[in-house]
Amino acid sequence: MSPRLLHFNAFIWPNGYHESAWRLADDDVRNVLGLPYFADIARTAERGMLDSIFLADNVAIAEYRATHLPQVQFDPIAVLSALAASTEHIGLIGTGSTTYNEPWELARRFATLDHLSGGRAGWNIVTTVTPLAAASFGQRGHPDHADRYERAEEFVAVASQIWDSWADDAIVGDRDGGVWADRAKLRAADHHGRYFDVEGVQPFPRSPQGRPVLVLAGQSGAGVRLAARHAEMAFSGPPSLEAAVAFRTDLHAQAAAWGRNPEQVLVLPALMVTIGGTEAEARARAERLEELSSSEFRWQNALYTAGLDPDAFDPDAPLPATLWQDPSPSTRTDQLFAAARARPDASLREIARRVTGGAGQTHFVGTPEQLADHVMTWQDAGAVDGFTIMGSTLPYELTAFVDHVVPILQRRHRFRTEYTGPTLRDHLGLARPDV
Ligand SMILES: Cc1cc2nc3c(=O)[nH]c(=O)nc-3n(C[C@H](O)[C@H](O)[C@H](O)COP(=O)(O)O)c2cc1C
């Protein structure tokens, strides 16, 4: 049996995913605030025939980040809607929080994107780790992890009812008879649950893909359970090959237990890449990025991505034991607390160095050949269906990936040489859900 084609999702993070990337970019720092910056990157990804581009979402930001990193947390769906007009094929995946949105409103926005893009929308379902968002939304507190995932489960069920509230063949278009759509083919959402009460039909017909492609990046037990039930693409995955095989096997077994076909659950973990023409060149690029990084940023970021407020801590003192003795509120908090438990006397600044970056990704540094070998090894081991590629700098790494890695994988018959259908589901080989 010939190996299956790989899938690639390009994570667009302004200037690149490495915290120092913006300091190496030589154009105006404000460029990341304009549509041309995003459109150029999206078109590069499309030139490489990648499956999709991806935008993260953090509904609120901590002020410390403004010092250290470009702050460009636009509304992803608004940006992707604009990119729908400047691209033709590439999938458009955006993040939407189930904790800080209402199902009606978010389902409608993603279905709008799916219509406007001709069936290219994907929704990365997140529950939002940072507690800062609560204050922005006038809420007293950030719900705990279990509560967030319970709400997410109900949210997805309601969103699906909204998307499915028009039958695919509801539009009649009978000008003579004066019938635009067959009302009998509408079935209003009618949901009354613990978190939501939603009734009504989506204010426009079902979108080209029926539902946007559902994506999840949860790593905890609850996160993986939600993915097993609903996700068609998973972004998470542990850094070692053996653990990644176990992760995908477990996700697929859980999906099968829900009566789903595991082949319809693709695993594309995040992989930060730094590419060079030679290994030495790639290493020099990665080292330069590290040299420019700040220990101030690292400790604050380790707390922030763990859902803690950096302003409340002293970086030169150990992380208070009272904190890490309690159960961790999230996977990322686990990583920080495990580092603190391993070295209880070390300062926060020191333990922060041991914690991985924001999305828990691994960092690949090497040549296009080496990267092609790496992704094929992981695919052949059954660890992945592809990767979510995070250029340590952008657009440089993505351009290098498209111009040098993609052709190698095409020659080895591991990557498409043309798009075979118009929708993101077509690119990914995912079935279109029935009503
Ligand atoms: C590639 C990737 C992208 C992510 N994007 C976001 C995001 O945009 N917004 C967000 O709040 N969380 C994001 N996350 C975090 C996950 O949704 C999730 O909360 C995290 O992996 C921890 O898992 P858990 O929620 O099961 O504990 C991302 C994670 C990964 C691996």
Automatic annotation (TrEMBL):
UniProt name for this protein: NtaA/DmoA family FMN-dependent monooxygenase
UniProt-listed Enzyme Commission number(s): 1.14.-.-
Residues where FMN binds: 57, 95, 145, 149, 220
Enzyme class name: oxidoreductase
Family membership noted in the UniProt record: Belongs to the NtaA/SnaA/DszA monooxygenase family.
UniProt KW keywords: Flavoprotein, FMN, Monooxygenase, Oxidoreductase
Keyword Heme: no
Gene3D superfamilies membership: Luciferase-like domain
Keyword Oxidoreductase: yes
A Gene Ontology molecular function term of the record: monooxygenase activity
SUPFAM superfamilies in alphabetical order: Bacterial luciferase-like
InterPro entries linked to this entry: Diverse_substr_monoxygenases (IPR051260), Luciferase-like_dom (IPR011251), Luciferase-like_sf (IPR036661), NTA_MOA (IPR016215)
Annotated Luciferase-like domain residues: 33-383
TM stretches of this protein: none
Organism: Mycobacterium yunnanensis
